[in-house]
Write a structure and sequence with these properties.
Elements: E1 6-13, E2 17-26, H1 31-41, E3 48-59, H2 61-76, E4 80-84, H3 88-96, E5 104-106, H4 109-116
């Protein structure tokens, strides 16, 4: 695999939150798409960035590294980083890597939005 197979849509939810809808694979080749979407969504005044993993097909260690980069950027901007839609497999990976301690993991979009405020 030598190219990105990731598509992201950015949804602004009021002025305080945005949702990044992830479709496809998150790998090291996804850096430009993921960082561009984060930059677009995490504008001035956004208090929470929510990652929608319902369309995630595959994520490897390079993808986990990119999520850490997004987490660092969110922390520097004093934003919450939240997520929903993770399969059981990826929830276990978040637990093993302890990302679940830094990124709020929720079952549904509504739960993540409630935690964003």
């Amino acid at each position: 695999m030598t190219e990105a197979t990731l598509s992201l849509q950015v949804r602004q939810i009021g002025k305080a939150a945005c949702i990044l809808d992830i479709e496809g694979d998150i790998t090291a080749f996804s850096e430009e798409a993921l960082m561009d979407a984060y930059t677009e969504g995490a504008g001035v005044g956004v208090k929470a960035v929510i990652l929608n993993f319902t369309g995630l097909e595959y994520m490897n260690s390079g993808g986990i590294g990119l999520l850490v980069t997004v987490l660092v950027r969110a922390n520097r901007a004093k934003q919450k980083l939240l997520a929903f839609g993770l399969t059981e497999h990826y929830q276990e990976i978040f637990e093993l890597t302890r990302l679940d301690e830094a990124i709020g993991i929720y079952a549904t979009e509504a739960d993540a939005l409630a935690a964003a405020v």
